């Protein structure tokens, strides 16, 4: 017999059942030698590893009874009840309200941005005056805050009666989406401006892109015409606000330019008055021409005086002291010197005003005149610049440097888009389920820690 056949025979042996074997009571000792010889020998334990699995199967094991059926407990009922209360009931109430009570709302869209006029006037090009208006980004930020403020709500309510528009379906029919003041006893308009502003933030959504400076609005109302009217009024009020900001900026610029012009005019008047007093004091109508003429005349007289002195020296060397020509030459020299003194006195530069030849006094006179001339020239230049700035401010005031450009004009809806019933119902279901799951998990966690 081959080893494979022996293993096959072993596999054909009957498998022992799981019933425990009968217990054999131990005997104290065999009764006789014959009994010991007639006792059957125990089966030898196989030494090979091939019989290990079979022996393991023959090992008796304890058998468990059938598992008992799961029975519903009290906590299961509480979880189911909480699911019904926290998820099913809110979802059912929300769906019922959205499809039976909620009034249809129509949306009107409008989009605009603040634009700045970049064209320069002729005065600015000639005078080199910079533009007076500021950057449009700050104006857009101001406009974004203005669209959510009480001021625009008050202005538009005075024109369109927002309380009446947003309470048309009746607060009793749709108390969630219609306007009504928060009161426990009545739901009738008008309510306070704070209540209306709060409802404004629900009906008017403002979207602002800081990168591009674009502002988009979505206006909701219960009729398409009302939504369109509110959107148009928002655009008009926004345009007025930008114009007011531009007017304030231009008025400030004009006021500063006007003050500078008045100061420049007063300074120029003062400098001209001082220069006029200088001319009256020294009797000079045209200071430059008069000074040049007087200097030329004095230079000519000095040349004549030099010639007369040379002629006198020549006569004294060739003629006697009683020669009448010498007396005539001396007389001529005296007359020339007197004439030079008289010409210098016309300018106020005689010997009494300075030294004997009057050079220091003449230098002081010329320095004083140059100082006054420079002051007058500076005052004239300041006046010219101030006048150019004032003209530029006036030109800026006559044109609209900043304006509101609409990239989406107010639209008129043809069908109701709000409230978005499937979306709102889905949100209620999701949040209710998440809240219920959180409560259940926390409850089981606290129970397990006990």
TrEMBL record:
Any one GO cellular component localisation term in the record: plasma membrane
Keyword annotations from UniProtKB, A to Z: Coiled coil, Membrane, Transmembrane, Transmembrane helix
Coiled-coil regions, chain positions: 251-346
InterPro entries: Bact_polysacc_biosynth/exp
Top-rank taxon, per record: Bacteria
Transmembrane segments: 78-99, 425-446
UniProt region (Disordered), positions on chain: 1-70
GO MF annotation terms: protein tyrosine kinase activity
The protein's name: Capsule biosynthesis protein
Organism per entry: Pseudooceanicola nanhaiensis
Taxonomic lineage: Bacteria, Pseudomonadati, Pseudomonadota, Alphaproteobacteria, Rhodobacterales
């Amino acid at each position: 017999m081959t080893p494979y056949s022996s293993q096959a025979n072993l596999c054909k042996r009957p498998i022992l059942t799981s019933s425990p074997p009968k217990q054999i009571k131990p005997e104290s000792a065999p009764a006789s030698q014959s009994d010991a010889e007639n006792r059957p020998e125990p089966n030898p334990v196989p030494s090979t590893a091939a019989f290990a699995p079979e022996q393991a199967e023959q090992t008796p094991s304890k058998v468990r009874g059938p598992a008992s059926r799961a029975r519903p407990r009290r906590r299961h009922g509480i979880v189911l009840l909480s699911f019904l209360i926290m998820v099913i009931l809110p979802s059912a109430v929300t769906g019922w309200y959205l499809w039976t009570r909620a009034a249809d709302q129509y949306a009107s869209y409008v989009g605009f941005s603040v634009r700045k006029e970049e064209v320069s006037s002729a005065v600015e090009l000639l005078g080199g005056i910079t533009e007076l208006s500021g950057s449009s980004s700050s104006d857009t930020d101001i406009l974004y805050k203005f669209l959510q403020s009480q001021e625009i709500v008050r202005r538009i309510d005075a024109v369109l009666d927002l309380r009446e528009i947003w309470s048309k379906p009746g607060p009793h029919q749709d108390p969630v989406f219609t306007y009504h003041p928060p009161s426990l006893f009545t739901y009738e308009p008008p309510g306070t401006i704070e209540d209306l502003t709060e409802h404004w933030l629900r009906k008017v959504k403002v979207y602002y892109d800081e990168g591009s400076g674009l502002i988009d609005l979505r206006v909701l109302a219960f009729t398409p015409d009302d939504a369109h009217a509110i959107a148009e009024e928002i655009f008009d009020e926004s345009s007025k606000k930008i114009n007011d900001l531009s007017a304030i900026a231009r008025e400030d610029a004009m006021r500063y330019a006007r003050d500078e012009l008045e100061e420049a005019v007063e300074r120029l008047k003062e400098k001209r008055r001082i220069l006029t007093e200088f001319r009256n004091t020294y009797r000079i109508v045209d200071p430059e021409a008069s000074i040049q003429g007087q200097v030329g005349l004095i230079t000519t007289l000095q040349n004549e005086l030099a010639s007369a002195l040379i002629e006198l020296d020549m006569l004294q060397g060739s003629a006697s002291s009683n020669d009448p020509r010498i007396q005539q030459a001396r007389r001529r020299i005296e007359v020339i010197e007197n004439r030079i003194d008289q010409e210098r006195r016309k300018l106020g530069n005689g010997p009494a005003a300075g030294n004997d030849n009057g050079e220091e006094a003449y230098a002081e006179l010329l320095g004083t005149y140059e100082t006054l001339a420079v002051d007058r020239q500076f005052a004239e230049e300041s006046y010219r610049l101030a006048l150019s700035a004032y003209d530029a401010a006036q030109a800026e005031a006559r044109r609209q440097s900043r304006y509101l450009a609409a990239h989406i004009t107010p639209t008129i809806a043809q069908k109701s888009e709000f409230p978005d019933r499937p979306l709102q119902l889905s949100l209620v279901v999701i949040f209710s389920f998440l809240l219920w799951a959180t409560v259940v998990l926390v409850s089981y966690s606290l129970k397990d820690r006990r």
